[in-house]
Each structure stands twice: as C-alpha cells, then as structure tokens.
C-alpha cells in the first residue's frame, strides 16, 4: 500500500477571475471552499505580462477573510515587501531566479509579518533550494513557465514535485509545497499523490460555473 495522501488546500488564482466583478468572484470562491487566494504579481520584465499590485490586493482584503498568497513575478521583489504587508498579504513568495540576496529578502518578508516563500521556475534545479529550507514557510513550484494563466502543466514537473517532497520530508517537513500552473481536475490526483499541500488553480476554478464542485474535485472529493 502507498502512503496515505494528505488533504490538500486549494488556492484559486485571481488572474483567471472576471475583473469586472472581482469582489463577487472572490466571495464566491470563498463560499465554495477555497483555502487561500492566490495573487499573481507581474512586472512585464521578469515575465512578459503585467497584472496587478498592492492597491488591488488591499481591495481584495476588504471583501475576504481568506489568507492572501502573493506570488511576486518581478525583478525587484524587495521594493514590494512593505506595500504588500500593508495591503494585508499573509504570505509572499519571491523567485529564486530573481533575487541576488535571498537571505535578506526572506528575512524582510518575515519581519514585515508575512510567511516567506520561494518560487522556482520549471527548469530551475531543486539544488537551488539547498540553503533555503530554514528560512521559508513554503516552496512554490511552477508547473508552467510563469506569466500567463490557462497553460498546460509541463508533465516533467510532477516528477520534480515528487523529488522535492522527498527532500522536504528529510530536511524540513513543516515547509508547505505549493504547485502552480496548469492544475486541473485530471492532474490533481497525481499532484496530491506526489506531495502537493496546496494546489493553485486559476482556470480550473474560475472557468467553471460550479466553483464549489470544481474546488471539491481538486481536493479529491466529488
Ligand atoms: O503564476 C501563474 C502564471 O504565471 C499561475 O498562478 C496561473 O495564474 C495559474 O493559472 P492556471 O494555469 O491555473 O489557469
């Protein structure tokens, strides 16, 4: 018999929400069983797209009590730490590929009252996390190239997640593993089995009329 699979959390990615009714969309996924709200910040440099920033985060904060999981896809994350802390973010991840002084940046995130996380692009080696474990609350493993919602999950990233989960078990069992990009009801069982604690899902939640069913299926329910 294999390992029992732990319950997984679902974090709808607001990038896939209808921005003309963002407040209602947020409240709907909260009622539908979302555990966190995932907030993708893009600067048009680190990734070839622009999204939203602290002002929108603050507005979301006013309509939901869910923890806000902010993913910075930007070249200078250090300048956004304080603004996102003030905007009510609970967790903040920065890309290992974007930051030179990662130890300092992770300490600044913690000092600002948020849970620090490190995000990894699909082909960034897991070895880049070797020194990071004591300083983070979570690792965000990108399962698509960041920048856009609605892409297909890169199949090789499932094996990478499995290897990451085995390392995590050895060195830092308390650190959460978050997967992000191309998550669907079809690939969610493999991601849960491989060790994901949190599934970030944009299209798989917001493109569905029945968000409650979508979130329940992602968690392995009916
Ligand atoms: O960070 C990103 C994209 O850069 C993700 O959070 C996507 O927004 C997830 O959207 P889907 O792939 O689930 O539609």
Automatic annotation (TrEMBL):
GO terms for cellular component: cytoplasm. A divalent metal cation binds at residues 38, 40, 71, 180. Pfam families: Ribul_P_3_epim. GO terms for molecular function: D-ribulose-phosphate 3-epimerase activity; metal ion binding. The active site is at residues 40, 180. SUPFAM superfamilies: Ribulose-phoshate binding barrel (SSF51366). Keywords: Carbohydrate metabolism, Cobalt, Isomerase, Manganese, Metal-binding, Zinc. It catalyses: D-ribulose 5-phosphate = D-xylulose 5-phosphate. This is Ribulose-phosphate 3-epimerase. The gene is rpe.
């Amino acid at each position: 018999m294999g390992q029992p699979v732990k319950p997984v959390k679902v974090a709808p990615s607001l990038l896939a929400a209808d921005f003309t009714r963002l407040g209602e969309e947020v409240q709907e996924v909260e009622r539908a069983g979302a555990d966190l709200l995932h907030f993708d910040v893009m600067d048009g440099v680190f990734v070839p797209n622009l999204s939203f920033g602290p002002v929108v985060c603050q507005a979301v904060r006013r309509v939901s009590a869910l923890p806000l999981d902010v993913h910075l896809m930007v070249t200078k994350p250090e300048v956004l730490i304080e603004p996102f802390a003030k905007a009510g973010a609970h967790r903040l991840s920065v890309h290992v590929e974007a930051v030179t002084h990662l130890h300092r940046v992770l300490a600044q995130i913690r000092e600002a009252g948020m849970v620090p996380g490190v995000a990894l692009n699909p082909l960034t080696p897991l070895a880049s996390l070797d020194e990071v474990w004591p300083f983070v609350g979570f690792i965000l493993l990108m399962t698509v190239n960041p920048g856009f919602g609605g892409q297909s999950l890169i199949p090789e990233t499932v094996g990478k997640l499995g290897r990451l989960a085995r390392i995590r078990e050895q060195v830092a069992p308390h650190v959460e593993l978050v997967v992000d990009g191309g998550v669907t009801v079809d690939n969610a069982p493999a991601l849960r089995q491989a060790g994901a604690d949190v599934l970030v899902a944009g299209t798989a939640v917001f493109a569905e009329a029945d968000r409650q069913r979508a979130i329940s299926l992602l968690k392995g329910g009916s």
